[in-house]
Amino acid sequence: MGNLDPKRVSTKQQGDAAEALALAHLQAQGLRLLVRNYRTPGRGGGEIDLIMQDRHGTMVFVEVRKRLHPSYGGPLGSVSPSKRKRIAFAAKFFLMRLKYEPSCRFDVVAIDTNGLHWLQGAFAVD
Q1: What is the mean pLDDT of residues 93-107?
Q2: Is residue 113 helix, strand or coil?
Q3: End-to-end alpha-carbon separation of the chain, Å?
Q4: What is the distance between the alpha carbons of residues 55 and 97, in angstroms, rounded to a whole number?
């Protein structure tokens, strides 16, 4: 995708490329991929870009955001309260199928014109 005109690359392709970049970065930091693009069944549920596990066994739910323009708060500002709520819903749904309750955290990988930024524990849920 490197030489393609960005105007001809779909939003989906850009999102997939951002997720691939984030995944490679997180794996280089020692995290292990469990699930990519996890979705809850039915309408109105949630989706998690990457579900990973760190070296200590912590389950890491990762939202990947790419914004090349700082308008609307940039990539971090685009993780709205409603988006966080849907991510938390999907995480709870995912955890229900496990036989144990691991420690968890919610990270954001933000990609902008300054590069990739990994925010560990970017938000908490009740």
Answers
A1: 92
A2: coil
A3: 40
A4: 22
